[in-house]
Structures are given as structure tokens and as C-alpha cells.
Fold:
Amino acid sequence: MSTKFVQLGTPDWPRHEIPESGPMTDGFGRRIEYLRISVTDKCNLRCVYCMPEEGLPWLRKEELLTYEEIVQIVREMAPLGLRRLRITGGEPLVRRDLASLVRMLRSIDGIDDIALSTNAVLLDGVAEELREAGVDRLNVSLDSLIPERIDSIARRPGSAEKIFAGLDAAQCAGFTPIKINCVVMRGRNDDEVETFANISRERPWHVRFIEVMPTGDNLQVQSEEFVSAEELIERISRIGKLKPVAGPKGNGPARYFAFDGAPGTIGVITPMSHNYCDRCNRMRLTADGQLRPCLFGSIQTPLREPLRRGEAIEPLVRETLRIKPERHWLTHGSDQGSGGLLALSQVGG
Ligand code: SAM
Ligand code: SF4
Structure:
């Protein structure tokens, strides 16, 4: 079978030696057991650091993987050592009946953890169903605790009220602990960092601060409002002694800290100032069926058409492992290392 790669601007990418059978391992000896699955590129918000206010050229319905196709891919990857899944987007809850996908994924042998990343706007009303369907853990994006600010960062009036209702519904449905993701921007929400950190003293929540990453649409925000994780840790240390801790299950690229006796933790995700690529254990599946070995960069392997032709995808998965890069090449204020992405929502952030 011939293997075709979409290489948006990075020709002749090096291929590395990998084990030809057994658990998925890349050319740098990293075991891959985690797949982030984007179920849609669409979103009901327009966060200033993520996508343009007018939206993006959305995928057409026939370009999206069906739920059955997603399940088929996971079913073929599970025997190769895939264990953990995260459903993301765009906003995954804008796709109809997400719980039915979760139920199908849950029934696959070998998959022992399913997480969901959401902005929580549509969570109230479906939280319990998602929990029953088999979502183990939730990450909720929350960039402010002030309603008017939430609405202005999300550029959708009325979002805050729904997000808070969604968070309540998640707690009632038994999603504890909840991870909160907060993208910190100078002058927009960085004055709330200490307040966010203090939540971890009161609730068993894991509050994670994310450095803004550059994509085609956000270069101004990224270069002018960037706040480094080092600065955040230094500031939070002034309101209480922080000790490094192991962090919750599925802690991925974050480094975690906690105040003495606090039920929750504080995490920092430092794609820009601290490269975590050496611990990378993941690949991504985009809503239109591209298998991406790295969040950023131009390399991806189209699985949708081979799948629709009834071909096995294991050879394509192994080929993607062979070209998984050692690290990403992002730099401040430039979208060069992003591989032409306009927004993380296009690949499932
Ligand atoms: N819509 C869902 C949400 O917001 O949680 C899932 C998709 S969103 C792309 C996943 C995560 O990526 C969110 O936590 C969001 O804050 C983060 N994100 C999006 N664009 C980003 C950027 N340019 N830099 C850093 N984080 C970003
Ligand atoms: Fe939508 Fe999530 Fe991007 Fe915000 S970060 S615009 S909620 S996909």
C-alpha cells in the first residue's frame, strides 16, 4: 500500500527507526498510549487567543469522520497499546449526541480512560449522561471568574452564566476533581491569577495556567500579552508556599504545585518557555481524520480515505510514528512552527 502524507511546507521530513510490531513507540523511544480526538472544528465561542471572531472555513459534514469511523480507528489502535483518549475540538459538545460516541469508545477493549475538554457552555443538561456514558474526567476552559470578562474573552455575550451552570452540573454529576484550564493574558486576565490559585485551597480542583501558543490568527495577543509560567509561579509563591506535587491522573505536559494542606493543585503548561516534548506520549486525530504526531508542525497522515476504502490503518499509524518529530518548533510571535494552523481548534488543542 502506498502511504501518502500531507506535508504543508515541510518536505523530506526525516523518518526514524521504530519497532515494527508491538506497542506504539516512536523513533525517540517514546511510548504512545494517548490519542486526542477532535470531533469537530466548530465552536460556539470565539476566544481571543484561539479563533477569529468571524470563525474559520469550517469542514463540510462529509469531510468529518463519523462516530463509527472514529471508533474503528480507536479499535485498530487499541491492540497497538492505545489506552487513553481525550475528546476535544473545536467545542466537542456542539456535535450531536456525543454520549453515543463515548459509549462506543468505552466498550473497546484496552481503553481505560476517557477525558473530555470543553468550554462547558452546553454542559448543563448533558453532564450526567456523559458521566454515565463513560467520561472519566473533565477539563473545563475558564479564563476568568468575572462574568463580563468571560464574555469578552469568549466574544459571546451570555456565555459566563451557562459556563457556571455547566460547572455546577459537572460537580453534581460526580466529575471530581475537575481540571480548569486558564490561558493567561497580560492586561486581560492576569490580575486573577492569585484568585484562581486560591480556588485550589477551597476545592479539589486542579487549576492549570496555560501559556498562549502562537497560531496564524492570534499573533498579536501571543506576542503582546504573553505571560510566562515562571512569572506566574513566582507571583503565586508570594501568597503561599508552593511545593511541587505529582499532579492528578492524566497530568500530561503540566507541572504541578500545591499550597500546604490544599485539596486542589496548581498546574502550569509551558509550551513556550519550557519544552515538555521529551515526555510526549500522544498523537492527535483531527475531525477530518488526519493523524497528527505533534500538535504543531505540518505533518499529518490522512486516515479517512484509506478507512473508507476498507484498508487497514496500522501501517499508516506506524508510518506516522516514524515521522513523529522530537519536539515542536514554536517561537514567540511567529506562526512558522505551527505548520500553517490558524487556530488550535483546527487540530484539537
Ligand atoms: N473548546 C474546548 C475548550 O475550550 O476547552 C476544547 C478545545 S480548545 C482548542 C482546548 C484547549 O486549548 C483549551 O483549554 C484552550 O484554552 C486551549 N487553547 C486554544 N488556543 C490556544 C492557544 N493559542 N494557546 C494556548 N492554549 C490554547
Ligand atoms: Fe472554542 Fe475552545 Fe477555541 Fe475557545 S478555546 S474558541 S472554546 S475551541
